Each structure stands twice: as structure tokens, then as C-alpha cells.
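Structure in, sequence out. Go:
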């Protein structure tokens, strides 16, 4: 008995010694905060289209490197999902699986569905080009990528993820109660679009604030929002034009652009003609046509009265269509990166008209907005396998 006890003590001592001598730092990624995250492109796990990290440029991204055969990975997925609940709409998840067996991964995701892209090319994780690019020595491992493509969180585990997210988003100062997406121009300007409601947007261009169609009818507390350097109003309907909301966002030196009717009613805005371009706040704004063309609907938004806007900020072109249908003038739009298209018949477009509008000028990113109770599923389904069009649904009912 004494011999057995002595042997157990000896084994325990050896194990302790080995653990003390093991340097876990050798397994940590060598990529550090501030470095540019290596781009990669991998297919969706079910054989769908390839997805690249660069597709998410302009947004925060959480990279999750894992495999279904990895017990630690499986345990950390619910921890990750719980940590992300406070950051809905502020960060995208891109999951990279190192599974080698397709059926095993499919079975796991059938039991544990993911509401974010899961990528896998079914190569061994130590042989994967992604493993080499990110210098992975251990999974699960998380990285957080900023909108400018740089790493702001490296080699994070599940236990540290919640604190890292809190640190990063506290430092951005983004405490607005709305979903937002951030894009970066070729000149390094950060452009953050906040989705307030219906047809109402706020755009922050490195601290220069643009309010579009602000109204109080949806309960927005404008006292909590930054004042406008530039105000854009598409037309005079009450869900787009509200003088009380305008007073709430106004400040000295604000520039106010609108259609002609709002200029008459407000007695303070500059009326823009369709096709007219002006420069404000170091970018250009062009007024575009917006009207109904379906028989029996013309009275809602008569041709020639209302406007939409194209904002050109360095190389980034944002089209805010206003209340319109899929009019022929859309064919004249060129190189649109982001398009806000209204989907709410009888006043604007049906989902089918929205699809036709997208096909007219091929924007890279489409946000259906002003959509009320419209079912947007046909739009999402139509473009789900289209690598050139990214349809994003936000709270813009």
C-alpha cells in the first residue's frame, strides 16, 4: 500500500512539474492589436458562395476559429452568443470551422443552428492557409476586427470575450440606442449610419452629423442625439417632415437641404432641383428623382415634387431614395455602394419592384427601409446567392 501511495505522489509531482514548465504562450497568436487582419475567402460550410473577411469592411467583426470535434469550442459557442447579446447590430460574427468531415459539421449545426456565416473548406486546421495567416496554435480562438480592418482584440478566449467587447465598444463612445453600420472611405474617413426608424437616418462622418428626415412620431429622443451639421428632407409628408424634430436637431451653422415644397413650408431650407449637386461638409449631395409611377398611385408622390439624395463621401456613394417606385431614372445611378430603397406599397415599392430597382443600378449593399409590415423575404431570398449584392435588414419599419 505504501509503495502504491509513493508511486501516486511521484506521478502527481511529475505532472505538476510538467505543467509548470509548459509555456502556454507558444500557442497564442503572434498577431497583435493594431495590425491589419489578414484577408481570406472561404466557402460556406454547405458549399454555398465564398465569403471574404473584406466583405465586412466598415463593420466590427468577431472571428471565431473552432471545430465541431473540439469540446472546448462547443462549450465556448454559447458563451460567445451570450456575450454578443448586448451588441446586436454593432458587430458581425464570422465563424471559421476546421472540421474535416462535412456530415459531422452539418449534423452539429442542425442541432445548434447559427444565425451568422459558418465557413469551412474541410482542410485540416494545422494545414489551413487561415491558420497560418492568423498564426493559430490553439482553438477555440477569437479575434475582433475594427471597421478599418485592423485587429483590436487578438487571441481571446470565451472567458475574456465579454470584457474585451465592453472595452472596445466603450472606447468607441457609441452609446446610441440604434443599430448602426460603419464604413471607411478610401481617405480613411469613418462613416457610421444609424438606423433610427422608418425613413429616418443619421450619418456620422468623422464627427460631422447628417440627419435625414427626422420626425418625432416614432418616439425618438433627439435630445440624446448629436445636433445636425447638415439636414436633408426628401418631402413634406409627416413621416418625413416634422418642424419640431427639425428644431430639436438644429444648431447654429447647420445647412438644410430639401425639395421645393419643404423649402416653402419651413421657410428656412434650400430647395434642391432634381439633378442639382451641392457641396457641404467636404462631400457632395445630389438630388435625385422620387415619385410614384404605378397607375392610380401617382397622387401619393407626384413626379417632379419630391427628391432622394446621393451622398458622395470620398469614394463612398450612398443613395437614399426617398419615397419612390422603381423609376427609370434609377438606371442613371452609377457606382452606388449603399442604397436605401423604400418597400411599402401602395406608397412606395413592392418587394418585386425593389428587386427590379436593384437590378437597374446594382448597388453593393441594399437596405430596404420605410417598409412597415411588408414581408421582405422575397428580396432576401432573391439575392441570397448573389455575391455582388448584400441585402441587410435593419429596424426600419
Amino acid at each position: 500500500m505504501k509503495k502504491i501511495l509513493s508511486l501516486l505522489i511521484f506521478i502527481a509531482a511529475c505532472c505538476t512539474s510538467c505543467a509548470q514548465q509548459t509555456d502556454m504562450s507558444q500557442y497564442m497568436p503572434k498577431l497583435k492589436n493594431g495590425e491589419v487582419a489578414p484577408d481570406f475567402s472561404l466557402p460556406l460550410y454547405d458549399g454555398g458562395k465564398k465569403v471574404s473577411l473584406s466583405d465586412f469592411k466598415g463593420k466590427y467583426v468577431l472571428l471565431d476559429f473552432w471545430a465541431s470535434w473540439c469540446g472546448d469550442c462547443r462549450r465556448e459557442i454559447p458563451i460567445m452568443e451570450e456575450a454578443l447579446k448586448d451588441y446586436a447590430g454593432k458587430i458581425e460574427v464570422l465563424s471559421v470551422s476546421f472540421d474535416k468531415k462535412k456530415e459531422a459539421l452539418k449534423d452539429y449545426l442542425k442541432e445548434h443552428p447559427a444565425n451568422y456565416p459558418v465557413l469551412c473548406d474541410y482542410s485540416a486546421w494545422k494545414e489551413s492557409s487561415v491558420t497560418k495567416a492568423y498564426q493559430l496554435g490553439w482553438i477555440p480562438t477569437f479575434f475582433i476586427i475594427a471597421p478599418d480592418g485592423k485587429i483590436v482584440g487578438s487571441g481571446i478566449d470565451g472567458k475574456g470575450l465579454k470584457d474585451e467587447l465592453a472595452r472596445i465598444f466603450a472606447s468607441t463612445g457609441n452609446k446610441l440606442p440604434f443599430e448602426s453600420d460603419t464604413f471607411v472611405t478610401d481617405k480613411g474617413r469613418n462613416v457610421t449610419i444609424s438606423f433610427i426608424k422608418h425613413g429616418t437616418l443619421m450619418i456620422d462622418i468623422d464627427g460631422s452629423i447628417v440627419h435625414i428626415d427626422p420626425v418625432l412620431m416614432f418616439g425618438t429622443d433627439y435630445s440624446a442625439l448629436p445636433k445636425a451639421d447638415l439636414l436633408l428632407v426628401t418631402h413634406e409628408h409627416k413621416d418625413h417632415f416634422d418642424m419640431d424634430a427639425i428644431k430639436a436637431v438644429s444648431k447654429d451653422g447647420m445647412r438644410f437641404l430639401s425639395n421645393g415644397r419643404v423649402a416653402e413650408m419651413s421657410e428656412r431650407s434650400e430647395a434642391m432641383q432634381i439633378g442639382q449637386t451641392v457641396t457641404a461638409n467636404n462631400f457632395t449631395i445630389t438630388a435625385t428623382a422620387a415619385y410614384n409611377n404605378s397607375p392610380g398611385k401617382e397622387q401619393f408622390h407626384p413626379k417632379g415634387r419630391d427628391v432622394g439624395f446621393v451622398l458622395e463621401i470620398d469614394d463612398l456613394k450612398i443613395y437614399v431614395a426617398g419615397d419612390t417606385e422603381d423609376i427609370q431614372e434609377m438606371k442613371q445611378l452609377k457606382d452606388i455602394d449603399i442604397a436605401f430603397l423604400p418597400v411599402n406599397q401602395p406608397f412606395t415599392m413592392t418587394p418585386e419592384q425593389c428587386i427590379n430597382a436593384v437590378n437597374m443600378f446594382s448597388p453593393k449593399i441594399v437596405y430596404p427601409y420605410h417598409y412597415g409590415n411588408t414581408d421582405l423575404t422575397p428580396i432576401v431570398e432573391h439575392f441570397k446567392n448573389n455575391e455582388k449584392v448584400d441585402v441587410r435588414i435593419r429596424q426600419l419599419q
